[in-house]
Amino acid sequence: MRAAVRGLGRGVAGVGVVVTLGVAGWLMWVLPGPQMGAVLGFGPVDGVVSVSRCYEATDAEGYATGTDCTGWYTPRRPGEAAREIVLDTAADEYRRGAEVEVRTARGRAYELSGAAVFNFGTAAGLLLVPFLTLAAWLFACARSGTVENGDGYFLVSLAGLFAAVVLGAVAGILVGIGTAVF
To answer: What is the DSSP string of 98-115?
Structure first.
């Protein structure tokens, strides 16, 4: 009887690992994934934005999030209409008339910039760390067939959240330096 319960516990924990990782992947795809892909330059350039003005953008709480620019977007794909668009977290405060190659996601234009890499990289890290920690704990439970102590996993998740912010900042700084130099 005890072996059957232990086997059932292992199976449930194993399914929990798969479900947890599936939910984490889906949330990454739905939330910061498309913007992060556009910022990092995955895929071909979607079009060009002719900048009309740039301004300091703020979030819902009023904190500065970087420079946004508005302008006229001219797509490269035939059949797609030109329209006004926001260049989210621009790499520079462009002058009126500057043309910037962009990738689009969710109705906004993106380019490689340090602020955008920091914003979306940190968001991705803060989203993934809790799910990966939970999956690691469930995997440990599945391996042993018992409920493992989660104290160490909690501390690892706190360290992982801190590391996500630090790595996002470092990546943003390096991209900012790289875009300024090249």
So the answer is: -EEEEEEETTEEE---HH
